[in-house]
Structure formats: structure tokens, C-alpha cells
Amino acid sequence: MILSTLLLAALSSLLPFTTAGPHARLKSPRKWSKKPGLVEILSTIASSNSTFSPAVSAPKPNIFLSLSDDEAASVISFLHNQTELNLTANADAGPWDNAIEVVDLVQPNKTDALAYLDNGGPIPARYAMARISFGATEKPYLQEFMVGPLPISKTSTYESLDWPTTSGSSKIRNYNADDDLLTQWNLDVTASVADIVLDLLNGTATGSEDDDFDIWGIDPLWMEEIDGEQRVIVWNTYWRYPSDEDAVFDGETLLPQGLFFKSDITGRDSSKWRLLGWLYGDIFYSTTEEFRKAWKSPGFLKYELNLPGEWIGSDQTGNPFPADDVAPPVAVQPNGQRFAVDETQKYVEWMDFSFYITFTRDTGLRLFDIKYKGERIIYELGLQEAIANYAGNDPVQSGTSYMDTFYGFGPYAFELVPGYDCPTYSHFLNSTFHAAEISTTHRNNICLFESDPGYLMQRHSSSNYLALTKNIVFTLRSVSTVGNYDYSFDYVFALDGSIETIVRASGYIQSAYYAKNNNYGYQVHDALSGSMHDHVLNWKVDIDVLGTANSFVEHKIIPVNVKYPWANQTRSTMQLERARIENEAHARLSWPQNGGAMFLVENSDKPNKYGEPRGYKIAPSRGGSGMYLTIQDSPNLLKSAGFAKHAVSITKQKDTEVRAAHANNDYDPGHPIIDFDHFFNDENLNQTDIVLWINLGMHHVPHTGDMPNTVFTTAQSAFIISPHNYLLNDASRTTRQMVRIDYNSTGVQLVKEFGGKMASGVVNITALQPDFHAYEGDVAVRKFPYDPLHPFNDTESIV
Amino acid sequence: MILSTLLLAALSSLLPFTTAGPHARLKSPRKWSKKPGLVEILSTIASSNSTFSPAVSAPKPNIFLSLSDDEAASVISFLHNQTELNLTANADAGPWDNAIEVVDLVQPNKTDALAYLDNGGPIPARYAMARISFGATEKPYLQEFMVGPLPISKTSTYESLDWPTTSGSSKIRNYNADDDLLTQWNLDVTASVADIVLDLLNGTATGSEDDDFDIWGIDPLWMEEIDGEQRVIVWNTYWRYPSDEDAVFDGETLLPQGLFFKSDITGRDSSKWRLLGWLYGDIFYSTTEEFRKAWKSPGFLKYELNLPGEWIGSDQTGNPFPADDVAPPVAVQPNGQRFAVDETQKYVEWMDFSFYITFTRDTGLRLFDIKYKGERIIYELGLQEAIANYAGNDPVQSGTSYMDTFYGFGPYAFELVPGYDCPTYSHFLNSTFHAAEISTTHRNNICLFESDPGYLMQRHSSSNYLALTKNIVFTLRSVSTVGNYDYSFDYVFALDGSIETIVRASGYIQSAYYAKNNNYGYQVHDALSGSMHDHVLNWKVDIDVLGTANSFVEHKIIPVNVKYPWANQTRSTMQLERARIENEAHARLSWPQNGGAMFLVENSDKPNKYGEPRGYKIAPSRGGSGMYLTIQDSPNLLKSAGFAKHAVSITKQKDTEVRAAHANNDYDPGHPIIDFDHFFNDENLNQTDIVLWINLGMHHVPHTGDMPNTVFTTAQSAFIISPHNYLLNDASRTTRQMVRIDYNSTGVQLVKEFGGKMASGVVNITALQPDFHAYEGDVAVRKFPYDPLHPFNDTESIV
């Protein structure tokens, strides 16, 4: 993706680009803390009868696997040979060139995939997606192509990747292709009021190294009709750089300065661009002259400065607790890993679960073909899009509605830190994405680990006995830092057959200047408002219960009055009402008030032996229920937020309806490539292949507790799917990790264990301490301009 | 509490009475796994600069502390000296005697307590509550008395404890005082249809040791008008005892047999009691003759038997996972305890939190005077009542609405198992309650522990650095097994200043016979229906934010259309609307749809330096939001369920409105001692001392996954209170458990730690294995009839 100057200005200060020394070749994922001789573990595994091996080969090759470096290289090379595309090497390309931005896998059609996975069909042909920016035109645009089959051969072709779109075309206009011009425009505008800026904000923005301010603004851009013409509008504002002493801290989004200007940047000739006005202290000045006149007037109201300082730092502060220099409890894995990973095929087995992993530039980690006890439960589980929709009394906050796949979750899913991000004993995996004609590998950016969440799965005591079952869960985690926010994604598998999807947010809020902003959030510092916003993150959950012929049913708990044969009076009681969502026309749902209904996906034709259809229940599990946008008709998001307007939506599965959103929708949200609302065509949903689109998130009104960073504890949201009349009993009865203690008045009579060894051995905790100096930074690619001074490690040049 | 025959029948089979060998004196709580020489921990604590000591003395004596054994004994002795009470020693008392059931502390008035705690006032006089059953009358009743001041002296008196009631009197009629008669009545009724019972249910109930069936039914009893008179009605049914091979398992509630009979048991002369009819297969027969005639008729429909078998057992079953005989990860505390406990005063300090604990017969564990950074946040936090409200096509399920404080959470809060219920390194406390004139101590029935919940508090990464903060939480846990269900209660304190209250349920469901019951739940076994029910558990949360002058505000996130000075068109956006709940008349709330509002308690007169009132936010945190009763006008609960009809209620604090419910309401729910609805008097709630009453729970429609036991993972509910504009920044910045890693393109430049040691030392995991044979059973008192063959350990005879 070629970033416009505007976006680059924002990103260069906001997005983390982590680098480290070069390596000749990609290393295999680091096994943390294998310091032979220091970790003493007694030979308990050998003494057990376990035949378990943590190595496994995927039963079939992973057809969802990200493109290999070689595949990406061959696709890029193939495209450069197509002269009609007129491509320039990305490293050399300017705004007026055509260049490849992203290469990724075209996800195989489910139809083909199931034929292959289940019915001995052929392995689906592999195709690449190539996202190309066409700059060599007065009307720059982006377009995606499908290239293949792979490997590239004489029969390989390319064509516009239009079939997964709702607009009919993967083309989208780029109204902001000229980053260099916009940067200069902003500096020129600022220069024209340098005296005012110095007076009001006490700083300068001239383009030099010692600038005080960074200038950036709304995302996405607006289209406004002026004099009967559609114009491209941007509102920008001033953000102060953190001061020298606090420079390490990424707190620029806490430093809005409260001065805004509006520009018409229509077209590629910046000499025709126009300044449309200034805003300061909630007063709009339609010309610089008007603004200057007001500023010079007596009584011009100047607001307080929002200055950097220690308060933007996240280091320890305040009186530490006396007990806190002692190390807290820590989890260990004394007897070895209990899950199996095929690192090549990105295939994982834990207990009765298995699944494939993939990783994309747009949405990061994704799971496919999740099986439970040999049956597919979820065909596809993955993030679709993350909206952060702001409001405020100023145009920049009011105009900001991030759609984060535009930036991508893949590029910013960095290396994780053992002992903090994940337990020290985690199994780490690498991930690769291909952007700006560079294949970039994040080392150790996915962790897999078992853990005990601190409460039991099952317990019961009586006068005779006590039965207790451990609740051991298996977590797959990645974290993407998209600018100011760190999104942590967990997929948690449990012994009861449930799968929980959790998102948590930490990092810096994007805040607002305080002046007259109190209807939009709390004042959180001297001249700062918390800037209220909605986070809505959408997941595709393609559940398949015993095949693809599924139905979505609501089982409602309803109050009723019933006259029973055994009662004299009518009784006020409740019943279970089973209702079916028959059609896409009624398939956009809120979570029920008071939890008064269960949402289920069942295979109505596959009842269990008691006649109850086997199914899975879907429910919110953390952070209250929700989440959908407060603003249902955002003038920023326009037709690009259809997926975010309800808590849960259900569609009939179609190979052409792959994603709820498109990473390029942000370029022109009024004319999106994928408009989720178009998925709803009144199609029948009875016993057909259905897909759920579930939103997580929160209404975030930052308060002082978000200073300096929002904390994960209060910013989390999750949904869980769990077996519902699916098996004939509680699935966790299969585990050995339980104990039964029988007793009577003379004491314990019997301790019954079930072959699950208790943790044993001697563990050298000191040797498990993570070595933070071993953090290698991460492999991130500054996509434009390409900076040859940053030879990103683990990067293989393709072109 | 003297249990009626009816209830005793239910309890004797359902409630666990755990016994073990006698001990001379109460031992101090066991420190788990102190096996000297086996646990090798390097001397890291000594080498640190920590001045922390895990021993502490409470700053003031705990005025909420449960009665001591001596206090209880002196109160009982005092009452026995009051001849007008005509008391019989509980051990010798029959239905026609007056006997003391429970002795407990009368919670001090908040007014007096605050004077003492905050303003150097006198220590509040201690008073005991004595709950006495008056059986020596044609109209038996229970009444509570306030006895004191303590210690008992010449000035001590007793009086009816009426002021904390809404009925004006602590007296309540007992319509079912004659357990012995009802047991015999049930057997007589059964004997009259022994041939039918044998034919339909294939078993007998004669009162002998080898009976197949246990007979019990609705709770509470019904009052029905028959021929213009109020009659006491009970519906009973047959429950099969687990078979010999499965006898250890407490699965009787999975074995309803589908035959029901209705009795009029008005009055104390059972010769005047009447059988009012039979129900089988959803057909009502108003006399035994009618039932017999039908049974003998050709075509009488016999339903399938619901028989015991392996399926009611909770042991491991099915093919175990290959990896599962390896021990899973486990948490250790290698460097010592980081919180302090005054075991005598039941006072706890963890980081910036401190609180007092108490324990009552009715509601178990309770917390008082929770302070954070030296300021009281919660004066009182504790369970009030737990309703389990069933529905079904049969009168027993339809008529069952347990109010569990009737049974009590204290008596059934048994010893916890290290390594399962709580980490092996937990700090355990004992608890004592006084019932049936016996002081009973549960050993190790409260655990306190720190843990890492598996995700961070804070993280942020940028191009320059990575900052990570651990999320260490402190948990106080107890578990009460009230009959078939095990309720686990957690109070979780976090470094961000939040406190989470969690309830989870496991154990056996109470189920229904399957015949024609499909509108009320799922069929979950051959002849079994899951019997849908609502769990509603109410907590009193007496929040005090910077004193008692508080207000409850709703901060709503609302969609609005705004015409801004800087915009040409009206924009669709959102705003924060601050609304105050002004009066008790509007103080009964549901959690907002889509999380669209925040519930806050603030001190409006104590804004922070930015003008935002300092407050705490209250929000649902697990298991979706809710929870209130589906059936708002239950004919079983009548006037006793006021607290359960809304998610959150707010009242003005009054010393007379101590509890939302009364343990004796169950005796006559139409005339409860405490009717929560009476707390609402249109009183003003602005800047006054307010109390929140918050419900947790779930609508539980058991499915096959609840067989044999419901699992905690999908049966949990929680609310969290967290600082909201309360401090000037994120409170977790105070912890040392964070790291900052600075890097650039040449690698890590700086690892900044903050004095928090990393876990270190060598831990012998084998030595930490819990010794399940050391489980002592628990100290439970069979209150009636008193069984001299069970010399409950740690019990001190009082009378």
C-alpha cells in the first residue's frame, strides 16, 4: 500500500517500526529459555506411559497457508513481466508510478476446500492476490488481481479480482495519491500563519528536524459537494511531538493542540488546492485573513497549552508497594508440552481439537478447519475489520473513523515477549507477509500455550465425596500494534469443547484538545479530552455443525401464564420458545436483553439420541454484551460499516462473500469494494451453510485511568461458542486431570486419580527468566518511502 | 434451624455432611505443603530490599468478626436462663419444643461503625442475633432476638430483632414444623398405591433401609384457598436413589420418577391432612381411586423409567487424550507471599487494598471496609440471597423456587482442596458458624492467593520501545455446596484498582421427568428433562466514594445530529449524556442494551483537578449481562423476590435496611420478614449514602453438556467495579512488575526494570503435590436430628 503523505505523516510518528540487525536466512522460531543444564526437570515424562509426541504432521497440506517467499517472488516477477501493467519496482516508485503494494494468498473457495478436505477431491489450485497502486494517471486508483495458478507457469494468468467484491470491481479511486504534495501543502499553510501558531501553540512546523508539531488529520478523507462539484476534503490538526526527555514514549496522540484547518485537495495539481478555513476554540474562520484578524483582536480567547511531560510516560511511578519487589506467582510447565505443532504446515493439535493457521497482511492471524473430536466445528474463524469511530466537537475527532485493515493487522503483529506477553514455556511461531515487494517475517509473533485460568472446570461435594476437575485451556495469541493501540487477540480452547475469541486493547488513546469538548468525553489532563469512540471488531465465524446443512435458532426464555391440569389457577411461569431465523431478511440481531435467549447453530437434521438437534451456542462472554456502532449512519464510514451495525449477523455462505470488509474501502468509503449490506438478499437460511459475523468491542469513553495507557483489564470483549446438546455428556469428562476423594466420618477412604500425573520434578525458576536483551525488535517494513538504511532482518528481497 | 421432615428428606440425600475424626481443639489453618527440605527456594527474598512482612495487625479490631465460640456459648446460656422463652436444648428438642437454631452477629450499624472507624468514636457495642424456633404452640413460628451487649453481663437484655425487618416483626409462621409427621404421611400415601408405584416406577418407598425412592417436593410450600380457607399445600414426587454401584455419586436430582401427589398438610394434626390428587404423564387424578382406576384401564400410558447408571457419575470416561497423562502447567509462588493477613482479626492487605472479612451462617463469606489507597471504596460487599427459580410441566419443578439462604451458605462452605480449588500456595483461613447450639468450624474454607490471569495489564510497542506491565490479581475464594449445586465465589482485586465479584456454578442440576416437558427444557437422558431455571444471586454493594455523600449517574453514549460551526451539513455523531438517578422511584435498572451507558457512583462534590467527579464504574464483566428473573410475579416467591426483578437497584443507605432478603422468608414467602420492594420510598439519592444491589446469575436451560455436572466454564457471571476519573492516572503504574525494552535498528539498547524481581530459585514441584489423603472432610453439623455418633471435629459443645 502506498501511503499518502497525509497518512505517512500520521504513521511515521505513530506506527512502530522495529528493526534489528540483519540475518542471512530466516531462523526457525526461537524456543525460549532452553538453557541446557540449568532447567532441571525430573524424568517424569519418561516414567509415564505417555505415547504423546509434541511433533505432528498435518493430515493434509495446509491449503490456507500464506504464500511462501518463493511464491510471492514469482508472482511479483510474473506481474513485472506484464508490460501493460507498466509496473515500477516498489522501491523506486513514486506517486506517478504503478507499483505492487501487497501480495497475499487468495483464500481457496470453501466449495473446493471441502471437496479436498472431506471428499478426496483435488487440492485446490493456489492463486495469489496482488494489490497494485496505479499512480500513472490523473485519476489514481488501486486494483487487485488474481494471479495463478501457482506455481507460476506458462498457464498462469492474471485477472482483476472482482468476484469477491460487492461493487463488481476491485478498483477503487485513490483521492490522496500525492503524499509529497500534501506534506508540502500542510507546511505551506502553516507557514502562512507561523506567527499565530507560535503564539497559540508555542511551537513551529516547518519541515525541519526540530519541528514541534506533526500535522495530520481525518481518516478517511471526506467528499464534499462544493459549488455542485464533488471535492476531496481533509481536516488537519497539530500534534505536538513528545519532548526530548519523554521522546521514547509514543504519546503523540495525547498531544493534540486544538488548531485545525480544512483543505480542498481535489486533483493532483496542488496549485489548485484551496484552504477552506481554520478552527480554534470552537470558532470557525473561513479564511486565513479572518482568522488573523480575530487573533489580533482584543479579547481573542487563547486556550491552555497541551504540553508533553512525564505524564505521557508509562514507566513505574508513585510509591511502589512494599511487597512488590518480590516476584509474583508464575506458571511453569514442568513436564513438557501437551500439544503438537506442525510448524511447516502451521497445523496444531491440542487434546480433541485440531486446526490450521494462516496469516494475512490485512487481518493477521486466522484459523481454518477447526475440528473437535474429528468433526469440523468451524471452517473459518478470523477478524474481518476493526473500526474505531470517534466523536468530538472538532472536525478531526468527529471525522476520524479508522478501518484498521487499511493499515493492516499483519504488518504490526510483532514479536512477543516471553514471561510477559505469553508464558515463558509457550511455543512460538513465525509469520510472514508480503508487502512493498518485500517478504517480511515476524519472528515469534504467535504464541501457543496451555494454562490454568485459576478456576475449576467441575466440582461437586456431598457427604460422601468430593469430585474436582481441572480447567486447562489452550490459547493461541497474537498482538497487533496498529498505531496507538495494541490489540491482543486470543483464541482459547477448553476441555468442555468451547472456543472463546477474545480481543483486548491497550496502548495510547487518540485524544482531543479539551476546549469545549465536554459533550464528547472527560477531561483527562490539563488541556486534554479523552475523545469518546466506539471500537467495533468483526469476526467471521463460519460454523459447521456436522456438515454444512445448519440452521440458526433462538431459544428464548419467555414469561408465560399457563393453566395446568394439576393447578386450580393459571400460573405465572416461563417456557423455552424455539424460534428459527428463517431468512437473511431477519438475520441481523442484537444480543438479547437480560440474556433472555440463546443463539444456536444447529444441524436440525442431526438430532442426538434424545431428539434434540446437535448444535453449538454462541454467546458474549466478557466485558458485557455488545457491540455495534452507536452512530449507525456515520458520515465518515458511509457504506463501509454495514458489518458494524448489529451485534450478530447471519448470511448464507457464498464463495463470493469471503470478507465483511475490504482493506481498501478506506480509500473511498462511500463506494466500497465490499459493502457488507449487499450480502443480505432475503435468502433462506434453513439447513443451509450459514456464516456468522460477530462483533466485539466497546464504547470507550477514556477517563483518567486511561492515562497514560488504556489497560487490557477493562478494555476486553469476547464471545464463546460451546457445545449445546452436541455430545451426550460434558466433554470434559474425558480428561485425566481430575480427582475424586471419598470419605466418611473416619476420614478419607479413597483418593481416585485417573492417570493424569501431577506436576512433578524440580524446576529452576531462575533459569526460566526471560532475557529481554534477546528481543530482536521485529521485522516491520516501512513501505513508503523505502528506506535503504533499514535492512530489515529476515527479509528476502524478491525483485 | 430445625428442618421440617420434608426438607430433611431432601437435605439428607442432597446436602453433604462431611465428617472426620475428632480433634481436641481447633487447629490453626493448615499451611499447605510445607514439607521442609523438599522445597528449595533460593534466598531471593533475603537478597531483595523488601521490607514486606506477610504478617500484619489490623489497624483496628474487626467489628464485623463473627461471634466467637465463647460469645455464642454465653448468648445461648443467657437465653436458656430466660424462662419465658421455655427453651429446650437443641439436641433434645422435638417439633413441639422451643429451641435455638442459629446464633450470629448482629452486624453493627453503619452509622456507629463509621464513627468508630473514621472519627475516633467508641467501638460499637456487640450484639448477637438468636434465631429461635417456637414449636410449643399450635401455630409454630420462628423469631429472631437481639441479645447484648456482649460480653453477656447483668446489663445484657434481649428483644425481638424487628428493626431490620420490613414486616415490622422478625416473627414468621412455620407451616411445616412436623417433619416426623410429614415423613410418615408421605410413606402412608405411598403405601396406599404401592402396587402402582411398583408397576410404574419399579421400586418401593416404605421407610426401610432398602427403599428405592426418596420423597420430597416443592420449596417453598404453597398456600392455597380451598373452600374459603387458606390451606398449606405440598406437592411431592419420587426421586430414585443412585444404585449401589453408583452410590457414591450425589446424582439423586438426576433421577426424578414422574409421579407426583398433592397434600393438604394444614395444621399440626396429621389425621386432618388430606391427599388432594395424583399426577402422572401430565394427567391429574383428583383421588387415589381415580388414579387407580385409570391405571387399571387398558391403554393406560406408561412412560419410560429414569434409572441410575454410570451416566450419573462424574469420573473420567471416554478415550483419554494421549497427552493428558502428562501434568499440565501449574502456577508456583517461588519467592513467598506478597500479601498480609491478620488471622485473628480476619484482616487482609494486598498492595493498596485492605479489607476485613467475616462469615455468617446465612450468606457465608462477607467483606467489609474495603479500602484502596487509604480511602474506603466499599463499606460492605456480600451475597444477600440466591434464588433458583424452576419451571416445568409438573408441579414440583413449577413449584420450586429455592431461596438458598434458608439452607445457608455458611454451613456448606466446606474445606477447599489445594491444587484444585485454589493454588497449592494459597493462604487458607478457617470460618466458624453457630447453629443448633453447636459452634462449627470449617477448616481451610477460604483461600487467598495471588495469580497471573494469563494476560497483561498494559502493553504498548512503537518503533523505539516496548512497555509491558503484568496483571497480577489477588483472589479471595470460598465455595458453598448448597445441595446439588456448588457455588464458587471469588472477589478479585486488581492493580488497576478494580474489584470483580464472580459467581460460578457446578455440580448436579435438579432435573425433571421427561414426559411432556419439552416446553421447559431439553431432554438430556433417556427419560430426563433438563428443567429450565433462573439463577439470580443478589449482592449488596455499599460503595462509598470519598465519603458517603455519593450520587449514581448514568453516562450514556447517545447518537445525535449536530450542526457544527465548521461543517456545512448536520452531522450524525454521538455524545456523552450525563444523567443522574435522582430518586429511589427511578432506581431500578437494567444493564443498557449494547453497553450503551456506564453506571457510575461518584462523589459529585469531589471533582478531580480536571473537574470530573471522582467515581467508580459498575459493569457486568463475565457471561454476558444480566441478570434478573424471567418470572416477575412468581406464585412461589410471591413477595420475597423483590431484589431479583432488576439487574441493579439503588437505595438510600439506612441502618435498618441491612439485607435484601431474610433466611426465613422461605417459611412464608407471601409474608416475608424482609420485602425488598419496601426499601423504595421515593427518597432522594443525590449526594447521599447510596447502596447498590446487583444481581448475577444465568438463565440455565441445561443441555446434555450439563450431564453429569454443570461446568463452571459456561455457568459464570460477574460484575466489576473500577476507578473512573478516580485517580489522575492508571493506578497500575505503581507496580514494579513491568519492563521497558528500548531498541533501535542495531538491537536492544536498554532494558529498564523497576525493582520488581523476576521469579527465581529452584522449586521442587513434586514436593508441592497436594496430599489428597490429608483432606479432613469438613466440619458440618447435621442440625436435626442431632446424631451423637458423629462427634464433629473441631466442635466445641456450648450447652
From TrEMBL, chains A, B:
The active site is at 404 (proton acceptor), 485 (schiff-base intermediate with substrate). One of its GO terms (biological process) is amine metabolic process. Gene3D superfamilies: 3.10.450.40, Copper amine oxidase, catalytic domain. Residues 252-319 form the DUF1965 domain. GO terms for molecular function: copper ion binding; primary methylamine oxidase activity; quinone binding. The keyword Signal applies. One of its GO terms (cellular component) is plasma membrane. Keywords: Copper, Metal-binding, Oxidoreductase, Signal, TPQ. It comes from the Eukaryota. Its cofactor is Cu cation. Its EC number is 1.4.3.-. The modification 2',4',5'-topaquinone is found at residue 485. This is Amine oxidase. It comes from Mycena metata.
